[in-house]
Amino acid sequence: MRAQFVLSEIGVGLRRNLTMTFAVIVSVALSLALFGGALLMREQVSTMKDFWYDKVNVSIYLCNKNDAETDEKCSKGAVTAEQREQIKSDLADMSIVEKVHHESADEAYKHYREQYSDTAIATVITPDQMQESFRVKLKDPEKYKVVATAFAGRDGVQSIQDQRGILENLFNMMRGMNVAALFVMGLMLVIALMLIVNTVRVSAFSRRRETGIMRLVGASSFYIQMPFIMEAAFAGLLGGLVACVMLLVGRYFLIDGGLALSEKMPLVNFIGWDAVIAVLPLVLVIGLLMPSMAAFIALRKYLKV
């Protein structure tokens, strides 16, 4: 009987505040969708870092004849065969080095023509202008500075480049987007909480006569508050479900269908469905608990029991 009464009160409250309840559902759904999206974005950055950092190399560019004329680092002339072999030998002796590949000037020229054959500068570049280099695969990409310290300033070495630096710009941009999503999520969360508190306040005021009677007949505070808390929890749960649907549809639209980024960007290792599904329970739990706690706190002020 008591359960039936609580359920009937929930239905009454939802009908009386239908518009505000709808606003709560929408705001909760948007804030939780942004929250889930931020978590997935962080997971995507982590996945991409693991994927790409395993493939990046440290490039040691060697001096050529042109560098000897224009670059102070190569003031002693182009790299000699002895210097080249010494660099290769020292790289092989380093425990952090997994693999070393030497790219000659002719190979560099061939790769350049393949990649930039449509540009005007490709027609005037000659093989002797290209730099030969060592492409070094490290066991731990974070140990780049060990290689840079060991070979920077050495005779025959023009520059050392860590390919991670190129990727860091992309990762920093994605982190920035993640921070922006969290900021908007926080704003939407505040709006949702304000709507929940206001909805509970209006609902409690409209049913002050009923709650007064319940208090007179000896009903407990928890029993009187329960319908209001359940209303907020129900609206929050609906908002959480909508947010879950938005995350699932968003992942499908961006990666598999619609934009089909997985086909357009085959070199990017995108997060799978398992990562999305793992976030959904957390979204639902927050969607259920957040409005319930907000309603409970609001009732202590607006419902005198």
From TrEMBL:
GO cellular component entries: plasma membrane
Superkingdom of origin: Bacteria
The entry's localization annotation reads: Cell membrane
State the Gene3D superfamilies in the record: 3.30.70.3040
- Which keywords, in A-to-Z order, does the entry hold? Cell cycle, Cell division, Cell membrane, Membrane, Transmembrane, Transmembrane helix
Q: Which residues form a coiled coil?
A: none
Domain ABC3 transporter permease C-terminal, first and last residues per copy: 183-303
Question: Pfam families recorded for this chain?
Answer: FtsX, FtsX_ECD
Q: Can you tell me where the transmembrane regions are?
A: 20-41, 179-200, 237-255, 275-299
- What InterPro entries is this protein classified in? ABC3_permease_C, FtsX, FtsX_actino, FtsX_ECD
This molecule's function is given as: Part of the ABC transporter FtsEX involved in cellular division.
- What is this protein identified as? Cell division protein FtsX
Q: What is the lineage of its organism?
A: Bacteria, Bacillati, Actinomycetota, Actinomycetes, Kitasatosporales
